[in-house]
Amino acid sequence: MNMRRHIYFWVITISMVIASGCKKYTDITPKGQNLLKRASDLDLLMNVDYSGTAFTCVKQAILDNDMYLHAYNVPNTISSNVQTMNKILITYDESADRAALTLTDGPYEGLYRIISTVANIVLTNADKASGDPVLLKQLKAEAYIQRAYLHYLLVNIYAKAYDPATADKDGGISYVKDIDFEAVNTKNTVKEVYDNILTDIDAALASDALPDQPKNAMRIGKAFALAVKAKVLMSMRNYTAALAATEEALKYNSVLEDHRSLLSLPKASRVPVRNGLSAADNLFYAVNSGFLPTTFTPTYEILHDWYEPGNIIRDSSAVYNYDYGYLYIGLPGIPVWIAPSYESNQAGMTTSDLVLMKAECLIRTNKIAEGMEEVNKIRIRRIVPYTQLIAANEAQAMVCLQRTSRIEFLFTWRNFINLKRWNREGKYAVTIERTINGVKYILRPDSPLWIFPFPRSATQFNSTLTQNY
């Protein structure tokens, strides 16, 4: 099934859901005509379940050495004569033809599907729809942020990280603004993609139509809109403007998840519980529901080099189960994350994003003590016994921030995007080394593996989608 067929399927499905779920629509709208003509219709359309393969980050988490394969025997995968994407990601094989192995791709097809069948439909119809004008204005603003954020994820998966010196020449992705499912959207440069992202964000914020608090964690309010702006500006290395956005966002939500509450329980019961839709620190919730952290296996390097001593999850909880790690991946001494009621926000954002973005922006603008204060806001909720960290300069502060960030965002999109961003800049690049059964595998900061291939389901339809690596 190619991209157009995917989109057709979802447009038809959405219309059927609206028609079957709300009988009043079929009572007054002639059969076969556009149902999306009222504010209430578009509001229903925006109630997207942001879960599924569009938001899977397993490949990226394997690449950046957060985890091993998901329930695959690692030694057997490495020794196999069959070339697979799993083998490439585990061994960092730059010579492999990844594009030939990528017939379809969940994030590519899924994210564009949401852009085309939700955001762009709302933006196309909002100005001519009937109903509450205040709600219609809000829906447009939400759709602008949705479109901006999903394109941000796409450009960071399939293109180079933003570099001010080369962004106007680096190949990016298509920025899709229409609902013409027969159109071929030409690939933009990285700079053009980011310019479009900022245009959408600024349009949403300028409307002043976003709610202070969204109705649920899969709708968009001011905090998430400002967080997206900050994330984009940080990628563009505009730390002063990004700082202003994070500080404004924190006015709407500054609640942080606190692991210290686990310590009052017997150790065998110290397993965190998190409801993805109601967690107080969520700014926007998106996840691959079939690949939550439960049954993920952290790497040797994560366990030994990145976790701080005294980390509550690693050292004082019952989350990591060492009895099943070997059964899952065939490597000794590796536990499995088992917390089935912990719904991690893998592809959205939380207040931890805001605090750590604020910390980095302060550090990058030579406000070292203030930046470390933000890093320690996370650490005091994660480490027992807690000792405040102090840094004398930017370089020391960035080491502390990178270590804290790496564990805070374990098994999520953020580690992949942050590492890729730091690597492209060069100043705080990270060479990843993993050792498996005595063999060391190295991922260079400038490796082409950091750029994932467009799937053949897209390149066969759109000839402008030449690979970006």
UniProtKB/TrEMBL annotation:
Domain SusD-like N-terminal: 83-232
Compartmental location: Cell outer membrane
Listed Pfam families: SusD-like_3, SusD_RagB
Alphabetized InterPro entries for the sequence: SusD-like_N, SusD_RagB_dom, TPR-like_helical_dom_sf
PROSITE patterns per UniProt: PROKAR_LIPOPROTEIN (PS51257)
Keywords: Cell outer membrane, Membrane, Signal
Residues of the RagB/SusD domain: 351-469
CC per GO annotation: cell outer membrane
Highest rank taxon of the organism: Bacteria
Family label: Belongs to the SusD family.
Protein name: SusD family protein
